[in-house]
Task: structure prediction
Amino acid sequence: MNDQQYLQHCLATWGSFADTFVQRCAALEEGDPLKQLASACQEAGGDSDSLYAEGPGLVARLFTSFPEFAPTVPRELLWFLGGECLHYLTDEELEAFQRVDEERAAAASRGEIIDLAAARAKLLKGQ
Result:
């Protein structure tokens, strides 16, 4: 999986997360802060520039203002967004994501594609 494929994978993961978040908030009244955050997450996933610019702030808002929803954020997205989002990952998760990223890069340099889910499961199982 090259960098472009990885980007598309992460955009799709964000899109799925945001769509589910919007669905979970559908019954809330217009103007509800959680519903607004869900909509902002959905809008940010439209392209990589928006996601890079807005994603970390949206994740921080979710984790600080609505911590009960924090577990719904795929851990991989925290790694992908980096920066302050890395603070929400455990040291073990950081190590595992680093190793998977290194394996992905090595495979891409050989022209191979790795199964990210399988690579993550293998590394996390070994902990």
Remarks:
- Helices lie at 3-24, 33-44, 48-65, 75-81, 91-109, 116-125.
- Residues 1-72 form one domain.
- The mean pLDDT is 89.
- Residues 16 and 42 are 9 Å apart (CA to CA).
